[in-house]
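Hey,
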Amino acid sequence: MTNPIRTAIVDDHPLFRAGVAKLLARTPGFEVVADGGTAADAVNIAQQLVPDVLLLDLNLPGDGIAAASTIAREHPRVRIVILTASDCDSDVAAMLQLGVHGYLLKGCTGQDIVRAVHRVYAGEFYVTPSLAARLLTEMSTPAPKAGDDSEGLSSREEIILGQVSKGLTNKEIARALNLREKTVKHYMTSIMQKLGVRNRLEAALMGQKRERVPGPFLPMGATPSIASGSLAYSMKSMTLS
């Protein structure tokens, strides 16, 4: 018997929270270790219980976005799946920047939630199908942007972008290229500005596209997992911030 996936749910609607907890508790291979209704609850659960996967609403008393930021920064072992009603591009982008592993809309099914938790626990990144389709469309046909200089990457920036596309973190890239991590961060800022992308995930996807790697923007070395229009791929080493 493998260890169950230790999950926690934080949502300020008790009925919805109870329903998700009941769904996971009845699903083989899951263990619900805690639930809560505030941002403070989320941080305390992450700190004290370190669940494998934390399902987190953004609209929480005490600021769910701030809670997600704190948990991603201070408790990286906890994989965060946002489960919210907001499909706002700015919210999705902000969460990807923080380094969450999943983003689900509350209109999803119970099967979607189970699938997302399974994949995130396995080290994948999962976005609810409608948002994933929109993201892929944006990356496939990017709108022209002022100052876009995607062909003007320096040779060093090309190398770093290639490493990001493989799923390496800034620290791993710095070690491989004998650079300071701070220097790699400066390069990443320049790369994202030149490519006209908003976050590290989009930079990785763009790097994938530029290198003409087969498949739907799948990082090199990753295991494909795309179904029902969703976007999911191995993220064992990749950080998005």
